Amino acid sequence: MNCTAHYSGGRLEMWAPSQAPERGRGMVARTLGIPEEAITVNITRSGGGFGRRVYVDYMVEAGAIAMRVDVPVKLLWSREDDIRHDFYRPAGYHRLRGGVDAAGRVTAWKNHFVTFGAPGGTAWATGLSATEFPARFVANYELGTSYIPFNVPTGVLRAPRSNGVAFAVQSFIDELAHAAGRDPLDVRLDMLSAYNGGDGAMDGARMRAVLESVAARSGWGRTSRPRGRGRGIAFHFSHRGYFAEVVDASVSPTGAVAVEQVWVVGDIGSLIINPSGAEQQVQGAVLDGIAQALGQQITIERGRARQSNFHDFPLLRMSQAPPAIHVHFVESGVSPTGLGEPALPPVVPALCNAIFDATGKRIRSLPLSEHDLSWA
């Protein structure tokens, strides 16, 4: 986090890589007692914001220091400052039960979701809407929620809310398919045929198109694999984007996970203005999701974050990146939508489902670094 501020003649000028400059201006005014009209915010290039730059605490800090000196001030947080004074993605717990009929079709789904919040609402970037898939796609569906009061600051992580929801929902579909003795792709296609959307809900036909496309492009179901090598499939609708993904992963006998290839098919509307930029957005989202799944976690001890830098909050290394991420788009007849978020959520459950295919070990919590995946 960084911000430059200069206070002179009763006016405060700021330069900040903020995703929410107007929110920053208002918070600075309220906290420091300066009229908003006396504050000018210049937006600098932000690089990756990923939700953290929606929050503007660093702008207030820079302004407070600038008001005490007669020269411009540049505030730059250290990595330790950044990780230990953050707004962390809210945790969640899903208690899922489901039913399948004699033909292996999903006929019942019950989820009790527990997360942070208070009566009347959840913490920002958590929660589960009443129309979230598979609502309306399963004949007998029930969703319950419970909230836990929580004093640690929470906030958004790339693909807010959807990153955790996709993992729970798509992993459980895989479990139901396995219990029914059916191909996970076929179970998903059956579910998507039950409802075609409306009222802001996911359009089943559009999602079915991207799911069929990614299955065909990856050769789903056409290759045999040795033990320790597996494939997983998942889809998710979020931020108005339809994405389905297949992950090919290997797990060594000692439990080391390697992502070999990823296939991605997305539908973000009728037109892609910058094809190479779109492809790179998707590839970056896939890498980001893999990193989140492999080893990223924040643990709180005595009210403080234990993690402090990349040695205990690891980003993805180049050696861990899959050699190939195949990206394709299905152009539909609807208006174009955004792309920064929706390609991330499916890769997490697709990876976990691939690990099950490779080892027989089901992943029900993240990150993967907390699991013993050895199978020798």
Walk me through what this model shows.
This protein is α+β, with helices and mostly antiparallel strands and 376 residues long. The protein is 28% helix and 26% strand. It is built from eight helices and 14 strands. It has helices at 21-32, 57-66, 79-84, 162-180, 184-192, 204-218, 275-295, 347-359; strands at 2-8, 11-16, 39-43, 73-76, 92-100, 106-118, 121-122, 140-148, 229-238, 241-251, 257-267, 300-301, 304-305, 324-329. A four-stranded mixed β-sheet has the order 3-2-1-4, covered by helices on one side. Strands 5, 6, 7 and 8 form a four-stranded mixed β-sheet that branches. Strand 12 (300-301) and strand 13 (304-305) form a beta hairpin. The longest helix is centred in the last third of the chain and has 21 residues, at 275-295. It is globular and about 75 Å long. 39% of the residues are buried.
Short description:
The chain has 376 residues and is α+β, with helices and mostly antiparallel strands. The chain has eight helices and 14 strands.
